[in-house]
Amino acid sequence: MFLDMSTVLSTDDPHTEFTMSIRLFLKEGQKVDPNLIILPVNGVDEEPIISMPDQAPLNQTDLQANVKLPCNASFEKCKPWGKKWEEVDEEDMQDPEVKFGLTIASDIHPEVICDRICAEWERNGGKKIFVKELRTHDPKHAVVLYEFYNKNNLETIVAEPEQLLTQARDAESLNAMGDFKWDGMDIPVMGCTS
């Protein structure tokens, strides 16, 4: 799901503050849904996936893989709307509002997450946060997290769910009588983290 968001940057280091707002979003969102992650914005790349708040990089080039900024995004203070530059003193300059987008995956509907964290988001400088339906965004992969309480070696832990998924796919292929579009497709590569 694609989120349309904005935040006001009021510190002397707006780029770091921007990254910290992304981290705040993920931290607060994971209080609602522990499986909330931020996916790459282009829907083609498989990496990087940000699953922990401290994984949001401070480097803006790296962050752009997961955060979509408009080409005219400005991190500098700006003059108030409708005023001329000659009329504006240094203290009248406004903090920049940076608009951006994120692609997320979650077990709980994103609107529920946005509703729950909205107050905290606004308290920390956030302006808007809402789900944006995009017909053009077609993620190429899904992330499914399984939690196993198993003391086997890693190869066994990975092999067991692969075998279960293979058996389920084959059983559905027999029952679907040719209408099962995943018939014969490989099970996605699985990994294991501790």
Question: Could you characterize the architecture of this molecule?
Answer:
The mean pLDDT is 82. Strands 1, 2, 3, 4 and 5 form a five-stranded antiparallel β-sheet that branches. This protein is of the alpha+beta class and 194 residues long. It is elongated, with a radius of gyration of 21 Å. The longest helix has 23 residues, at 154-176. It has helices at residues 14-32, 60-63, 110-123, 154-176, and strands at residues 2-8, 37-39, 67-68, 97-105, 126-132. It contains four helices and five strands. Helix 1 (14-32) crosses helix 3. It has two domains: 2-132, no CATH class; 146-194, no CATH class. The two termini are 27 Å apart.
Average pLDDT reading = 82
Compressed to H and E, one letter per element, the order equals EHEHEEHEH
Indicate the proportion of strand residues: 5-15%
Total number of strands:
5
User: What's the story with the biggest beta sheet?
Assistant: 5 strands, antiparallel
Helix content: 25-40%
Spans of at least 5 consecutive residues with low confidence? none
Q: How many structural domains can be distinguished in the coordinates?
A: 2
Q: Quick one: overall form? A: elongated
Please give the radius of gyration in angstroms: 21 Å
Structural class: alpha+beta
Work out the helix count.
Answer: 4
The termini sit apart by 27 Å
